């Protein structure tokens, strides 16, 4: 299945945390043109977002607040992975999701938020509904 979880160090002090989300040098040449950055929020426990896959979009997600259950499934092979993203961990995790990987996020806290970088601007024909949660 084409996804990656990468751990990063948090730089913390009495003011909070500083976390580098994504560096240009970490991107393959095909992804070095700017797409878009957006935020996704979950306003209560149990909210489910996404439940789709993309034919072309490549995405990098980072949890900013709260805890999320993540479900991924390769739409061709049906291989499935489930795990938790937690903003309170001692390290930061970035999730990279390739085209053809269905993804869904379920809030496990009263509030949660994701930041996302995508390699191109969103267009509706690239989002294919795919129920996971």
UniProtKB/TrEMBL annotation:
A GO cellular component entry from the record: cytosol
Domain called Sugar 3,4-ketoisomerase QdtA cupin: residue spans: 1-127
Signal sequence bounds: none
Molecular functions per Gene Ontology: dTDP-4-dehydrorhamnose 3,5-epimerase activity
InterPro entries (UniProt xref): QdtA_cupin_dom, RmlC-like, RmlC-like_jellyroll, RmlC_Cupin_sf
Pfam families according to UniProt: FdtA
Protein name: Sugar 3,4-ketoisomerase QdtA cupin domain-containing protein
């Amino acid at each position: 299945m084409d996804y990656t979880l990468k751990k990063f160090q948090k730089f913390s002090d009495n003011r909070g945390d500083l976390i580098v989300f994504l560096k240009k040098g970490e991107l393959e040449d095909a992804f070095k043109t700017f797409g878009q950055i957006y935020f996704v929020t979950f306003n209560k426990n149990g909210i489910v977002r996404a439940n789709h896959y993309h034919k072309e979009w490549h995405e990098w997600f980072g949890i900013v607040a709260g805890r999320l259950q993540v479900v991924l499934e390769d739409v061709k092979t049906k291989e499935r992975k489930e795990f938790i993203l937690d903003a309170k961990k001692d390290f930061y995790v970035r999730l990279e999701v390739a085209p053809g990987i269905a993804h869904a996020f379920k809030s496990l806290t009263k509030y949660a938020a994701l930041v996302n970088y995508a390699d191109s601007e969103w267009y509706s024909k690239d989002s294919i509904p795919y129920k996971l949660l």
